[in-house]
Amino acid sequence: MKVIGLVGGVGCGKSTAAAILEKAYGARVIIADKIGHLAMEKGCETYQQIVTLFGEEILNDEGQIDRKRLGDIVFPQPDKLAVLNGIIHPFVWRTVKEQINAAEEAGCAFVVLESAILLESSEKGLCDVIFAVTADKEVRFERLRASRGYTREKFEAIMAQQLSEKELKKQVDVLISNNGDEEALEKQLKEAVDKFILEV
């Protein structure tokens, strides 16, 4: 069973690409970000570590970690972001491996691992091929402003932590441009899957 790594910066459209691959090929999609969110939920083994380090001001009225409050603390401060990642990432990768094994046992054709952190991790070897979804900076900002209410300041702070397209190109097998509509994105994805998954 093949594993496609799907990477790209915030606002590039990784989730849209993953949904297309799931619908078109019946791929099993594993979203590392969602597993990272689980790591912050009350009852998870990592929850108390995060609260102890960053304080109860990151909690909402129900005692759950407010990801926006936490993000406002860590994204402008790389040292604090590194500490948070040191707690969350080991949990994420352990869970990802469990889900890949489950997909193989279920007889899935291939897995799509959507992850913003794959290239910076030591887990790239989980993937047989890596696709990077890219988009122009202003396209990304407008998407995030409309969908998540991002300010320019927050967007720039996150961008500063992420790989540039030039850096991405050195580390991936396919660059997929997502400045256009979903139809154009789907066409590029199908070409990449035909080349790297179906023809192998």
From TrEMBL:
Main location group: cytoplasm
Alphabetized UniProt keyword annotations: ATP-binding, Coenzyme A biosynthesis, Cytoplasm, Kinase, Nucleotide-binding, Transferase
Pfam family, one: CoaE
EC number, as in UniProt: 2.7.1.24
GO process annotations (BP): coenzyme A biosynthetic process
GO cellular component: cytoplasm
Signal peptide as annotated in the record: none
Positions bound to ATP: G11, C12, G13, K14, S15, T16
Pathway field: Cofactor biosynthesis; coenzyme A biosynthesis; CoA from (R)-pantothenate: step 5/5
Protein name: Dephospho-CoA kinase
Organism: Acetivibrio ethanolgignens
